[in-house]
């Protein structure tokens, strides 16, 4: 971990200024590749089991267009505001980072709240993890995404505390940037859930 | 889901068998003994500072290898028990249930808790030194990987004394492993032992991928990397794409068993075949994860002891990449007989046979590397030489098994058992041994005793063939795998008895390997100069053992794939001695990995017994330690000052002069 000189072609952004920052950002991209495989496995499982409702409710019976459209909008907007926060971070504007990141987290929390109430409603209608293979696949796929969002909210909040304590240093910027990568990734996964689970389920 | 439901399994403490009572006694005696001696000699502080909190890749590698040898003992003992039970018809050493448990733990431990950590340990020791790095990219994460593996192994091994072992085979097929047919904690042990260790392995894959791509010394282009480093890079890619599948597969069965989901159940739309598919989508790449690094070791060892450049460097790289790609498209050949259509079986037959092509290329390259070489045969080279014919037997029978129609005859028989032992022992275990003997005098300042090691080698090799060649024959005579006894009328008695003799010979070979280590620690000649084998690659250009920062100066003259060999021929050093020493940036030791893994143990134990309160307390601990660490990682490194480097160099000089 010796060289502190910045290699040619490295973007001139605070998060890339240290060797550690560059390694960790690259490593996180690789981790996201592993996450893609993780979600692919869940998607494959869900799609294989999607028609196996065992006489229980189907997607068509359960999914509410209005609800999952709002969820989608909340998450997509949060990805946009997260991008704005990264831009502010690169300008060195701490206040801007806080405004946009907190907006991001609030939108994320809104999404999460809707998802939880969606799950509760399904369970109240008698559609649980134990009802059918379709619902097992649904709850675990969508739930794993929801768990990731929860982790993202807690994680980014903790990073924001560190930014408040230490300001926008190369280290805190790296943490913010990686948190942002994670958040955008969750958005991408949701787009696939939107298509493969909800839209397809309505057909 | 009830947080406060602390249900007890049928038996909590297992005491129903003299063997297990013996295990209890030895576990308690060993633990008390270790605690007593460490306390008596006041070594707790030393252990904590130098080992438990270390982030040094060399020490982590040593701990991996030690744990792997321990697991080799456990898995080997299982094997000896099975072979004793099968030595003659109608033996009563093990009953059916106990036999099921033992072949399950044998397979699981040997693959996940022996082969994997052995290979990863050698990667830790070898790769950073081979590429001229001072540590891996993420040293703390590396320690996390080790401790998660270790905790996973401990959770898994606890099963045979507390609560009962898994008994559905290492492939853990549903519906047998579902909660209906196998209630109790055994299968949960399997799920959580593997889950915890698997997360650690995934982190290792990411770590080495980044390390190799981003931390090579100046001049070391991708096509100048030693073959072991290449194999580690390719293996890391396979880990990154295969292990998340295992994570999910285990999690889904956990949902089925603990929370009543229907992924793999027979009722409510579940699909048992999903397990077979998902398991092998991970499982087949997994066997290449353990074989490719062995290929890398053989390549380095063979070119070192043939005193020749590796033949066909580019072909070696291309064939490894080809194998890694093919490894993801052959998984169905593990269940040709489970009702796939002829089209599917044909396609997977062909992809499977294709693997023989790049593998054959590699075998020819090893042979051509030795052709007209000045071959020497110390222990690492012996294991490499033995690998070629033995692996060939495993490979050829593999092609036989790849033929789907013929597989209906071979499958589920001892023919298959023999095939995969020939590739896994003949490939992976021989590779681990070659690597252990090869790098031992790099990790420490002495070689392993040649005479004892040669005895160990020959006894093991003879025992291996005596044990496994007859398995092909009894397999063709129809003896199925995983049966706990057989009748004399079947006509399998003679070959089974021969196999058992072979297994005991292998056991003696293992004991001799351990004896060689103990003997060499006490008696072998010390030499810190660092190049005992007349090596070709970077790791031999630095002293043995290397200083904790590996390279006091960065190597500056890497112009080929054998940089040190070429430098020696030119009469040069790898390092520019005129360059002034500079302070070296190094990571601090860290207690987070072991503490976090301790909480992971609590969580794993809680989930195994379905005591959810304890499981969640453990998980909270895991999260808490990570958060705590995130807030204090602003002072996680330090500089090694020039004075310290000079002191190390002076000490080395004194030791080298004392020798001559």
Automatic annotation (TrEMBL), chain A:
Instruction: Indicate where this protein is primarily found.
Output: membrane
- The EC number on file is 1.10.3.-
Cellular compartments annotated: Cell membrane
> Entry's CDD domains?
Ubiquinol_oxidase_III
Pfam annotation, one family: COX3
Membrane topology qualifier: Multi-pass membrane protein
Entry keyword set: Cell membrane, Electron transport, Membrane, Oxidoreductase, Transmembrane, Transmembrane helix, Transport
Any Gene Ontology biological process: aerobic electron transport chain
Which regions form coiled coils?
A: none
Q: Which residues cross the membrane?
A: 26-48, 68-85, 97-114, 134-161, 181-201
Q: What class of enzyme is it?
A: oxidoreductase
Domain Heme-copper oxidase subunit III family profile: from-to ranges: 26-202
Which reactions is this enzyme annotated as catalysing? 2 a quinol + O2 = 2 a quinone + 2 H2O
GO CC aspect terms: plasma membrane
Gene3D superfamilies hit by this protein: Cytochrome c oxidase, subunit III, four-helix bundle
Q: Which GO terms describe its molecular function?
A: cytochrome bo3 ubiquinol oxidase activity; cytochrome-c oxidase activity
Family affiliation: Belongs to the cytochrome c oxidase subunit 3 family.
Which PANTHER family does the annotation name?
Answer: CYTOCHROME BO(3) UBIQUINOL OXIDASE SUBUNIT 3 (PTHR11403:SF2), CYTOCHROME C OXIDASE SUBUNIT III (PTHR11403)
Query: Can you state the subunit structure given in the record?
Result: Heterooctamer of two A chains, two B chains, two C chains and two D chains.
**What is the annotated role of this protein in its UniProt record?**
Cytochrome bo(3) ubiquinol terminal oxidase is the component of the aerobic respiratory chain of E.coli that predominates when cells are grown at high aeration. Has proton pump activity across the membrane in addition to electron transfer, pumping 2 protons/electron.
Name of the protein this chain belongs to:
Quinol oxidase subunit 3
| High-level lineage | Bacteria, Bacillati, Bacillota, Bacilli, Bacillales
TrEMBL record, chain B:
Class of this enzyme: translocase
Q: Which residues cross the membrane?
A: 20-39, 60-82, 102-125, 137-162, 189-213, 233-255, 275-298, 310-331, 343-368, 380-402, 422-440, 452-474, 494-518, 599-628
Q: In which pathway does it act?
A: Energy metabolism; oxidative phosphorylation
**Principal cellular location given in the protein's record:** membrane
A single Pfam family it belongs to is COX1
**Is Electron transport there in the keyword field?**
yes
GO BP annotations of the record are:
electron transport coupled proton transport; oxidative phosphorylation; respiratory electron transport chain
Record's family? Answer: Belongs to the heme-copper respiratory oxidase family.
Question: What is the protein name stated in its UniProt record?
Answer: Cytochrome c oxidase subunit 1
Name its species: Marininema mesophilum
């Amino acid at each position: 971990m010796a060289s502190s000189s910045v290699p040619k072609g490295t973007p001139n952004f605070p998060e890339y200024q240290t060797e550690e920052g560059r390694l960790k950002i690259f490593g996180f991209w690789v981790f996201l590749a592993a996450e893609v495989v993780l979600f692919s496995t869940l998607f494959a499982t869900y799609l294989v089991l999607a028609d196996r409702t065992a006489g229980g409710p189907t997607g068509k019976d359960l999914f509410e267009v209005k609800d999952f459209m709002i969820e989608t909008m909340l998450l997509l907007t949060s990805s946009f505001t997260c991008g704005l926060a990264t831009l502010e971070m690169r300008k060195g504007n701490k206040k801007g980072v806080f405004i946009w990141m907190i907006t991001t987290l609030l939108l994320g929390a809104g999404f999460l709240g809707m998802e939880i109430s969606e799950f509760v409603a399904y369970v109240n209608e008698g559609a649980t993890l134990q009802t059918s293979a379709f619902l097992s696949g649904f709850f675990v796929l969508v739930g794993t995404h929801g768990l990731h969002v929860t982790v993202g909210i807690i994680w980014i909040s903790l990073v924001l505390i560190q930014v408040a304590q230490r300001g926008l240093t190369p280290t805190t910027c790296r943490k913010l940037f990686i948190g942002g990568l994670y958040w955008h990734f969750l958005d991408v996964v949701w787009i696939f859930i939107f298509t493969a689970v909800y839209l397809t389920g309505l057909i | 889901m009830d947080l406060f439901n602390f249900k007890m399994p049928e038996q909590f403490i297992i005491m129903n068998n003299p063997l297990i009572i013996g295990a209890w006694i030895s576990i308690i005696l060993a633990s008390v003994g270790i605690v007593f001696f460490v306390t008596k000699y006041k070594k707790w502080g030393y252990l904590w500072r130098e080992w438990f909190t270390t982030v040094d890749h060399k020490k982590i590698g040593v701990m991996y290898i030690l744990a792997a040898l321990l697991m080799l003992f456990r898995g080997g003992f299982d094997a000896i028990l099975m072979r004793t039970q099968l030595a003659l018809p109608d033996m009563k050493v093990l009953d059916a249930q106990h036999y099921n448990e033992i072949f399950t733990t044998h397979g699981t431990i040997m693959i996940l808790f022996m082969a994997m950590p052995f290979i990863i340990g050698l990667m830790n020791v070898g790769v950073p030194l081979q590429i001229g790095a001072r540590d891996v990219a993420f040293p703390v994460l590396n320690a996390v990987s080790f401790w998660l593996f270790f905790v996973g192994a401990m959770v898994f091994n606890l099963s045979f004394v507390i609560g009962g072992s898994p008994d559905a085979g290492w492939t853990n097929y549903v519906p047998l492993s579902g909660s209906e047919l196998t209630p109790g904690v055994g299968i949960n042990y399997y799920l959580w032992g593997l889950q915890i260790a698997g997360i650690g392995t995934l982190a290792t894959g990411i770590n080495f991928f980044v390390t190799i791509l981003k931390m090579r010394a100046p001049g070391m282009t991708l096509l100048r990397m030693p073959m072991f480093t290449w194999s580690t890079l390719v293996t890391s890619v396979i880990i990154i794409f295969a292990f998340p599948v295992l994570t999910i597969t285990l999690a889904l069965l956990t949902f089925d068993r603990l929370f009543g989901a229907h992924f793999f159940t027979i009722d409510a739309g579940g699909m048992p075949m999903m397990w077979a598919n998902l398991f092998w989508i991970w499982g087949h790449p997994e066997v290449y994860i353990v074989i490719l690094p062995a290929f890398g070791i053989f390549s380095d060892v063979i070119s070192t002891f043939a005193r020749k450049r590796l033949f066909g460097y580019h072909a070696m790289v291309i064939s490894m990449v080809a194998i890694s790609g093919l490894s993801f498209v052959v998984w169905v050949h593990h269940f040709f007989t489970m009702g796939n259509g002829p089209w599917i079986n044909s396609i997977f037959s062909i992809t499977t046979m294709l693997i023989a092509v790049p593998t054959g290329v590699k075998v020819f390259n090893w042979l051509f590397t030795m052709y007209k070489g000045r071959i020497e045969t110390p222990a690492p080279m012996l294991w490499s030489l033995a690998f070629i014919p033995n692996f060939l037997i495993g490979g050829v029978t593999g092609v036989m098994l790849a033929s789907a129609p013929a597989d209906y005859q071979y499958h589920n028989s001892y023919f298959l058992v023999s095939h995969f032992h020939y590739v896994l022992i003949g490939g992976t275990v021989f590779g681990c041994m070659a690597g252990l003997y090869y790098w031992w005098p790099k990790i420490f300042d002495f070689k392993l005793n040649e005479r004892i090691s040669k005895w160990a080698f020959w006894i093991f090799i003879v025992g291996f063939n005596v044990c496994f060649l007859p398995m092909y024959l009894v397999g063709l005579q129809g003896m199925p795998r995983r049966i706990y006894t057989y009748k004399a009328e079947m006509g399998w008695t003679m070959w089974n008895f021969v196999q058992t003799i072979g297994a005991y010979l292998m056991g003696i070979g293992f004991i001799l390997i351990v004896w060689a280590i103990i003997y060499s620690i006490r008696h072998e000649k010390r030499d810190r100069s660092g190049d005992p084998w007349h090596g070709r690659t970077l790791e031999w250009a630095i002293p043995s053992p290397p200083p904790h920062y590996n390279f006091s100066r960065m190597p500056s003259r890497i112009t080929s794939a054998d940089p040190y060999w070429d430098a020696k021929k030119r009469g040069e050093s790898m390092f520019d001695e005129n360059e002034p020493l500079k302070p070296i940036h190094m990571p601090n030791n860290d207690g987070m990995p072991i503490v976090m893994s301790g909480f992971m143990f609590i969580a794993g134990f809680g989930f195994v017994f379905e005591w959810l309160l304890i499981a969640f307390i453990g998980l909270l601990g895991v999260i808490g330690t990570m958060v705590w660490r995130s807030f204090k990682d602003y002072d996680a490194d330090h500089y090694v000052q020039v004075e310290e480097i000079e002191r190390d160099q002076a000490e080395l000089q004194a030791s080298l002069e004392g020798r001559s």
